[in-house]
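Researcher: Structure prediction, please.
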Amino acid sequence: MIDTHCHLYELPDPAAAVARARAAGVCAIVVPGIDAATSDDAVRLAAALPGFVLPAAGVHPDAACEAGEVVGAVADLARVETLARTGAARAVGECGLDRVGAGRDPRSQERAFLAQVALARDCNLPLLLHCRAAFDRMLRLLEPFGPHPAGGVLHAYNGSAEVADRFARLGLRFGVGGVATRPEAVRVRATVAAIPLDRLVLETDAPYIGTARVPKGAVSPADLPEVLAAAAGLKGMPEEVVDRVTDATARELLRL
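Model: Predicted structure follows.
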């Protein structure tokens, strides 16, 4: 299994988390940055765990629009560009749009997002995308570019299957995570069931998004088998089939 979205640097003991993940059958972890500092953290973890940790560099929409942080966001974008252009990062992200909660600055988010889309295209790197309550707007920003040459993943996707079709035409795939393990998450589970299997990848978003068994903030990449089991149940397929197909999709995107 490949965990395509895990903030390993946020876990209290990354080395122990990696050991547990390997014992659980995880063979690689994609670690996205959310600003300059965490992008550097991801790169350092990859240097310590070559071939197992795959680093990404990005500016999360929260980092792009916090009040009084305009200068910081510019510096973060500059560092992300350096990591992408020097080959230190395997993908660009976590980047995107988020319209949930107070204090959002859509213009700052969109400027940072479009800068990272352009960077990823220029460097031929996949995108790791974050989108909450902004799918229509993200599509309006992305569709003029056409398909992203290196593809990408909409992580923790919670939109509809119909909207997913439009994103798929842009070369994007969809992260299935902890929400899909919860019986009460009816819409997300229906979407996972409807999206073709070869458009899905697995993720934990550790430590953030909880699962049916593990509370939010306590998740680790070793919990990926719970996500795999949920995805297999929703697709009505054996776990080994879902594992093989999602693994192949992730390997293609990440050029493994």
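Model: The first strand starts at residue 2 and ends at 3.
Researcher: Thanks, that helps.
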